[in-house]
Amino acid sequence: MLFRQLFSVNELPIDADQFNILRNNNTLSYVPPCFKESLMRILFSATVLIVIVSFICNRKKTIAGLKTGLRMFLNLLPPFITVLIGVALVLSLLPKEVISALIGEKSGFLGYIIAALIGSIALIPGFVAYPLSAVLLKNGVTYPVIAVFITTLMMVGIVTIPLEKKYFGWKVALTRNLLSFFGALIIGSLMALLWSLI
Amino acid sequence: MKKYFLKNRTDLIIILLFTVFAILSIFTNFEFGLKTISNFKISFLDMIAFIPLIFVLIGLFDVWVPRSVIQKHIGQGSGIKGIFWVILLAMLQAGPLYGAFPVALMLWKKGSSIRNIFIYLGAFSTMKIPMLSFEIGFLGWKFTLLRTILTLPVFIIIAVTMEKIFKNTFTVHEVHNE
Fold first, then answer.
1. Contacts of A82 in chain B (CB under 8 A)
2. N or C, fewer C-beta in 10 Å, chain B?
3. Average pLDDT over every residue of B147-161
4. Which domain holds residue B61?
5. Interface contact flag, A187 B39, Cβ < 8 Å
């Protein structure tokens, strides 16, 4: 129930045109549609309303839930800020054109491979990966490439293979990661095919 | 508090260094620094207003949706119904992929099939509800739905393949925390 409400708040058409308008402005300011002020206000009021309803239903549970949320938020904050610093530095060092040549629209299949490799090696929590992807989109990276990046980030973990091995053994761990790597490329390719159709 | 600083040592040092760098850049009018600050400020301000709200909702979701109810159904039926419950269980979890391995061990002990264990890992990594809410917020409905719909069959196929390859040798080992 809670999330259905949250989802409906976020139900926004993000279409290519909107991004193009933003891109053509030639500024670095990226404003995802969900941050538009009025929608921010709706999301904010919805959250407040949900908290009040939850509080009336069960005070203890609500406080426990808010504490969980706060703890997760505080744990996320340092790595989140670090990644934003990293992104800001990379964006200053590499002009938009370079990023877009590497993993942008004209990079072709090479862009997918680069995104898949970065996603496989990097150990970025999802809470950070999505904001990062939003910034990349603004800088000319396409949705299918983002899909490859996100999928490998989630399903392939080269750094965590030693841990995975402890549970399943080398063969299983390596095979699962390898299959997931190619799976991500397939997801990206299908995404590219379907994105413009829908 | 001390634990928090220790745990996030590296990140906090980087943040501190960046702050020093930012202050120096402003005083010396260092162009590269100023550009970086403005890049940082834009993305930070955009996101910092939005993220706490999501965490409030995730926290409440965590207390109101009992996982034990779903866990009861795991192990029952290994057909479509089993797949359904495994995916539902995975969607209600939170955390990184390596947090899913201990759950996989639990599933294995409870008599889950090899296929369902890998379906669990696939769903866990790509379809967790807290993550999906983030994804929708930052990348939109269209992207999130399309990615989820495309990912679902892919990880089911991977699970079936894994079961075929490792039918006779598969096991999940007890791992003790060192």
1. 10-11, 14-15
2. C
3. 95
4. 57-165
5. no
